[in-house]
Amino acid sequence: MGEWSKKIGEVGEGIVSDLLEEIGWGDAQKNVSINCVYGQRHGTEKSAKNTHGIDNFFSYPSRLTDRTLDHLVISVKFSSNPYPDSPSSKFKGHFFDLAKTMECFRKSSLRNEAGKQFSGIEMARNIGVLFWLTNDKSNKNIISKVSKCRKLEDYTYETIFLVDDYKAAFLYDSIRFLRQSNHNQNVEFLHPATGKNINPASRTAASNVLPVEYVNSPVLPFRITSHDNKKTLVLSNSDDFAVDNLRRLLGIAQTLSQEFATNTLILYPDYDPLLHDNLVQEAKAGFANKTYTESVTIDCFRKDYRGGSR
């Protein structure tokens, strides 16, 4: 059992390492340890806790908020079995494990040393990212099931994001589709103006680093730059195709594309031209600017040999 548990852990860490490479967090430190500041409270009745293990640790200047450094404390939990039918209890165990680590991370030398590597920083945020993944190929969404869990405030932490199979698959499939279908072109994560990233000296419109705020977002924004410097806006959506959803994304894309893009691509996991083309025209009909709507293409980021969703 011990060897099997070790193998499961190693498989999970490998899967997450590959995903971190895809989202620009590949330079994360791996398997680091920090001292436990609250040994009695974080331990058991029989023994105090001495250290906390951190699977991955990554710091980067925020692209969405000026003069802000984001410290990401990443925990990896992987199971060979599907998620439990009632996942709240298991989720709480994983969540509290990371929350305790975050509580001690605030006072750790790891955090202090990481902060010294960057200049022009006025504020640092301590953010936990819990990758709770399984070997179940159905890629179930359990975030909705655990989002109403109560009594998660026993420990002091700022923000903890959960990435489940569904979100991990969405991130991976969207990025891989764009990079494989746009050879010799630069595919980056878009950093739109937020009102908090207005400093022209540090403003970056796009980069290879995924802002942590995007890991739970149903829409991922990208910028593709071709060899002749033409730019395309991409919005990849985790929800299935629907006319109302497309209308909303068309409105968002129209605003964003005015800043830089000549073309727009909107992606869905299940888009099928045979089933949905008439609905696309219905959604576009509500926009007066026909030059804009003619520059918009709808596609599927999970394709089978027919060209529709697999």
Structure description:
This protein is an alpha/beta fold and 310 residues long. It contains 9 helices and 11 strands. It has 2 domains: 2-165, no CATH class; 169-300, no CATH class. The protein is 34% helix and 25% strand. The longest helix is centred in the N-terminal third of the chain and has 21 residues, at 2-22. The mean pLDDT is 93.
Q: What strand order characterises the main sheet?
A: 7-6-8-9-10-11
Morphology call: globular
Count of individual helical segments? 9
Q: Give the tally of β-strands.
A: 11
Termini distance? Answer: 36 Å
Radius of gyration: 21 Å
Averaging pLDDT over every residue, what do you get?
A: 93
Question: Approximately how much helix is present in the residues?
Answer: 25-40%
Tell me the domain tally. Answer: 2
List keywords for this structure.
310 residues, alpha/beta, 2 domains, 6-stranded mixed β-sheet, 5-stranded mixed β-sheet, 25% strand, globular
